[in-house]
Automatic annotation (TrEMBL), chain A:
Cofactor requirement: [4Fe-4S] cluster
Pfam family membership, one: BcrAD_BadFG
Domain of life, source organism: Bacteria
Organism: Desulfosporosinus acididurans
Domain ATPase BadF/BadG/BcrA/BcrD type stretches: 5-252
GO terms assigned for molecular function: hydrolase activity; iron-sulfur cluster binding; metal ion binding
Listed EC numbers: 3.-.-.-
Protein name according to UniProt: R-phenyllactate dehydratase activator
TrEMBL record, chain B:
PANTHER family assigned: 2-HYDROXYGLUTARYL-COA DEHYDRATASE, D-COMPONENT-RELATED, SUBUNIT OF OXYGEN-SENSITIVE 2-HYDROXYISOCAPROYL-COA DEHYDRATASE
Example of a GO MF term: metal ion binding
Highest taxon of the lineage: Bacteria
EC id: 4.2.1.-
Cofactor: [4Fe-4S] cluster
Protein name (record): R-phenyllactate dehydratase subunit alpha
Gene it is expressed from: fldB
A Pfam family matched in the record: HGD-D
Family: Belongs to the FldB/FldC dehydratase alpha/beta subunit family.
Keywords of the record: Iron, Iron-sulfur, Lyase, Metal-binding
Length: 261, 422
């Protein structure tokens, strides 16, 4: 039996197809999110890669910022519950989840059964989110893929003190103008993202294992900075950008077999 | 006189709200005094003196709910009011500015013409009280200076410890006496203490009916939709010292009790979970916030905010009246705030709590993190907080709100189904 989870975020669209609640048949990402062609493209891609049709899905659950605009879905579940479900499936020892996406940062605390005990999200501010990194990557002319590598070569991380994305951007520009090495600026940018996320994690109460997910978890510079700040190891969820879609697909499976009753 | 005997509570609410504005406009025309008042400043003194009352916070809420806030907020912006200032204050300062321009030029500014808000007259005096915040001091000072009119301040100290010390009540009672003598001077007549006693008694009857309504949300399922309190609140603020409030609230409580008897509940058969809402409503998005919760089967059965006007005291006893006006939970220490909210949550038999992190109202927001943390250690109920603002529509994001309340709903469901083991 196949189920599908669709996660339409602010920055990217993700689809996971699951067989019998266990095997991941497809896990696709398109790096544009709600309101774009992303949702349709990612759906087509997941179906064509798996050789399946929409009608083959026993149930489809949508999540993410754009969850209400997914016509194909039978139900919507919040991205908080879906992240918890997906991460717990992949890393059953997870107790604290840090999810950094395009425009939000969240820290989620799980109980031993993987249920959400508490969560905290950023307020109406893009500081510490993927958007912040996107802006910095553009200013620094360093692609997102290379950010971690630059960070690893840093000798003395610069300080990026402004929380506001716009102010931080001008701070970074002036550091560039003053000849500060990009490596050091990037390490500073990562630290700034980490401090915002860790603030939320501390409020949850940090308990190991700590697992990171969301698109920003692909930037190992951020992962390192968070681990350093928390003084604890941080596990990156496998294929971290698709964990919420995976959670949605598992919820769909559970509902079909009535495990939630 | 309009016959009100057959009106429903909802009709009475609309009727008396309009009546109060009409009375103020009429008073102005007839050369009588009009006073603008802070929402939890004692109303008893001005009503005794037959002064027509306008409550800017309620007026601003109405502008917000009717989606007219942005226009007047821009006027306040242009006058230099910082966006971090309470949006009730900014809406009112903007509105006042338009009224002032009209009075000075004889021409009605376009924004005033177009405003969906009830038209109100400019005040001849203003009265404020810092028992809910200190923004109200500067705000009313500015009104008085801009319009060159008298300002009455009733200073109510913050209660850093409970119970409220006698010296504090004595001090507030002195403040009351001072306000009375100021009023005697402004009105050019003696204060009538016999009438004052009657006004106090009226206030107590209004408050008693108000509390009667609020207590009905303890029933499960609830006949009362807590969001209705946000609407009916207009009269506990603006007319508690008049019989308008008593009549309307009594009618509403009777209707609800009748419904309860007949098994008619606020959400019909669809009440699934019950939540406490801590903080002021998001007026420009009232429909969105209410429907968002309702679609999930979540009814609001707890809110400490309407309880600010639970001003019960012994008529004729100034010290008792002083106590009523100072024990308001946002004028007390964290411990007491937690206790009040804890009673609200258990009284409403709530399954979760929503905290409005209000950009306007610092007093009702800054302690939320701590409050939520302490409460959860005791009651283990899930909670969420969202960023918003009571009247500045720019400070609220519907999608962010939706995500948070959906997650809260899922956590409450988990708890109820006993899936979670902790
Ligand atoms: N290869 C990558 N390396 C580093 N960061 C990445 C990479 N791909 C995406 N990101 C970051 O992930 C963010 C999007 O995260 P995602 O979890 O997909 O967001 P959402 O769910 O809000 O749409 C982007 O803003 C970008 O900063
Ligand atoms: S909303 Fe808060 S800050 Fe504004 S007037 Fe009321 S108590 Fe004061
Ligand atoms: Mg996401």
């Amino acid at each position: 039996m196949f189920t599908m989870g669709i996660d339409i975020g602010s920055s990217s669209s993700k689809v996971v197809i699951l067989e019998d609640g266990l095997n991941i048949i497809a896990a696709e990402v398109i790096q544009i999110g709600t309101g774009s062609t992303g949702p349709k493209r990612v759906l087509d891609e997941a179906l064509s890669k798996s050789g399946l049709k929409l009608q083959d899905m026993a149930k489809i659950i949508a999540t993410g910022y754009g969850r209400s605009s997914v016509e194909e879905s039978h139900k919507q579940i919040s991205e908080i519950s879906c992240q918890a479900k997906g991460v717990f499936f992949l890393v059953p020892s997870a107790k604290t989840i840090i999810d950094i996406g395009g425009q939000d940062v969240k820290a989620i605390k799980l109980d031993s059964k993987g249920c959400v005990k508490q969560f905290f999200m950023n307020d109406k501010c893009a500081a510490g989110t993927g958007r912040f990194l996107d802006v910095m990557s553009r200013v620094l002319e360093v692609s997102l893929n290379e950010m971690a590598e630059y960070d690893s070569r840093a000798t003395e991380p610069a300080t990026v003190s402004s929380t506001c994305t716009v102010f931080a951007e001008s701070e970074v520009i002036s550091q560039l103008a003053n000849g500060v090495a990009k490596e050091n600026i990037i390490a500073g940018v990562h630290q700034s993202v980490a401090s915002k996320a860790c603030g939320l994690a501390y409020r949850c109460g940090v308990e190991e294992d700590i697992v990171m997910c969301g698109g920003v978890a692909k930037d190992l510079g951020v992962v390192r900075a968070i681990s350093k700040e928390l003084k604890k190891p941080v596990i990156v969820a496998p294929n971290p950008q698709t964990t919420a879609a995976l959670g949605a697909a598992i919820f769909a499976f559970d509902e079909v077999i009535g495990a939630n009753k | 006189m309009t016959d009100t005997s057959n009106m429903s509570a909802k009709e009475l609410l609309g009727f008396y709200q309009e009546e109060l504005y009409e009375e103020a406009r009429r008073a102005k025309k007839e050369g009588k005094l009009v006073c603008w008042s802070a929402s939890v400043a004692p109303s008893e003194f001005c009503v005794t003196m037959d002064i027509a009352m306008i409550y800017p916070e309620t007026h601003a809420a109405g502008i917000g709910a009717r989606k007219g806030a942005l226009d007047v907020l821009e006027v306040a912006d242009e006058k230099g009011y910082n966006v971090d200032t309470c949006s009730y204050a900014r809406v009112n300062m903007g509105y006042m500015e338009l009224l002032k321009q009209e009075a000075l030029t004889g021409k009605t500014p376009e924004k005033l013409e177009k405003s969906p808000a009830a038209r109100i007259p400019l005040p001849d005096l203003v009265i404020t009280c810092n028992n809910i915040c200190n923004t109200l001091l500067k705000w009313y000072e500015n009104l008085a200076v801009e319009l060159n009119i008298p300002l009455i301040i009733i200073d109510v100290p913050f209660n850093h410890t409970m119970p409220i010390p006698q010296y504090s009540k004595d001090y507030i009672a002195e403040q009351f006496k001072n306000a009375i003598s100021q009023l005697e001077e402004i009105c050019g007549k003696k204060f009538d203490y016999d009438k004052f006693l009657k006004v106090q008694e009226q206030t107590q009857r209004s408050v008693a009916q108000w509390n009667r309504i609020a207590s009905l949300s303890s029933h499960k399922p609830s006949p009362l939709n807590g969001f209705d309190l946000f609407n009916y609140m207009a009269l506990i603020v603006c007319a508690r010292s008049r019989d308008y409030a008593e009549i309307t609230f009594k009618k509403f409580a009777d209707e609800l009790e009748e419904n309860l008897k007949n098994g008619i509940y606020a959400f019909k058969g669809n009440e699934q979970k019950r939540v406490t809402w801590e903080g002021i409503a998001v007026w420009p998005h009232l429909g969105h916030t209410f429907k968002g919760l309702k679609n999930l089967g979540n009814i609001m059965t707890g809110s400490a905010y309407p309880g600010l006007w639970n001003l019960s005291y012994t008529p004729g006893d100034m010290s008792s009246m002083a106590e009523a006006y100072t024990r308001i939970y946002i004028n007390t220490c964290l411990d007491n705030k937690v206790k009040v909210l804890s009673d609200i949550i258990s009284g409403g038999k709530c399954d979760g709590v929503i905290y409005h992190q209000n950009r306007s109202c610092k007093l009702m927001s800054f302690l939320n993190v701590e409050t939520a943390d302490i409460l959860q250690k005791g009651n283990h109920l899930p909670y969420v907080s969202f960023d918003g603002d009571q009247t500045d529509p720019r400070n609220f994001s519907p999608a962010q709100f939706d995500t948070r309340i959906q997650a809260l709903d899922e956590m409450m469901k988990q708890n109820k189904e006993g899936v979670s083991n902790e």
